[in-house]
Amino acid sequence: MAFIQYLTFDSVPLPMPDSYEMELSDVEADTGGETEAGTTQRDVVRSGVVTIPVSFSLSPKWVKTMTEFRRKSKITVKYFDTETLDIRKTEMYIEGYKASLVKDTSYKGLWTVSFTLREF
């Protein structure tokens, strides 16, 4: 049985994540809000913006690779779309990067790395 490749950054397939979620949100203009009649008016500028919170258990080699991706202002990401169960491609950036040591080993430990991918 083949595993799904959940994430690929700039043509580099990433290891299997420990957790993976895909969230969709709308971007609204400042002109929306509540009318005088008390109804809500939404001026949606863009619908379906993808946000992916993800975490991994990684070796030191992969922690270095993830840190390099974090430093980039833009990453071409292929991700597994949980709505269509298909692979999609878009440009994203990393936000809220966190690396934590799980276990100290003879080879620089086992690490948990978590972050959120946000679509441009």
Overall helicity: 10-25%
> What is the overall shape?
elongated
Strand residue percentage: over 45%
Structural class, please? mainly beta
Structure description:
The chain is mainly beta. It is built from one helix and ten strands, in the order βββββββαβββ. Strands 1, 2, 3, 4, 7, 8, 9 and 10 form an eight-stranded antiparallel sheet that branches. A two-stranded antiparallel sheet has the order 5-6. Strand 1 and strand 2 form a beta hairpin. The mean pLDDT is 91.
In short:
Helix content is 10%, strand content 56%. It contains one helix and ten strands, in the order βββββββαβββ.
List the helices and strands and how they pair.
Blueprint: E1 7-9, E2 12-13, E3 19-20, E4 23-28, E5 33-34, E6 40-41, E7 44-58, H1 60-71, E8 75-81, E9 86-103, E10 110-119
Antiparallel strand pairs: 1-2, 1-8, 3-7, 4-7, 5-6, 7-10, 8-9, 9-10
Task: List the defining traits of the structure above.
120 residues, mainly beta, two-stranded antiparallel ribbon, 1 helix, 10 strands, elongated
